[in-house]
Amino acid sequence: MNLPDWVYAFASVLAGAVLLFLCWKKRQQGVREDRYVLFGKIVIALFMIAFGALLFKVGKA
Q1: How many CA atoms lie within 13 A of 52 on its CB side?
Q2: Burial 41-54 (b: 16+ CB within 10 A, else e)
Q3: pLDDT score for 3
Q4: What is d(CA 29, CA 15) in angstroms, rounded to the nearest whole number?
């Protein structure tokens, strides 16, 4: 099954945004996480969003 790059790009950006949203929602409810875990989740989410943006750019070329 060959899906275009923009599908994977959208999925990656969406997954990164959802991860950031869930981290924020968890913190808002008062659930505290270790700083290293929170930092790791934020870094991974930003990489996912950046990878999705890169795929959008490459997919349109």
Answers
A1: 17
A2: beeebeebbebbee
A3: 84
A4: 21
Amino acid in position 53? A
Q: Give the type of residue at 21.
A: F
Asked if residues 5 and 58 have their Cβ atoms less than 8 Å apart, the reply is yes
Give the C-alpha separation, 23 to 5, whole Å: 27
> pLDDT tens, 3-52?
888 889 999 999 999 999 999 999 999 898 899 999 999 999 999 999 99
Structure tokens of 2? 């060959």
**pTM for this model (two decimals):** 0.83
Task: Please compute, for residue 56, the number of CA atoms within 13 A of its CA located in the half-sphere on the CB side.
Answer: 12
Residue 27's nearest CA partner among 13, 41, 14 is: 41
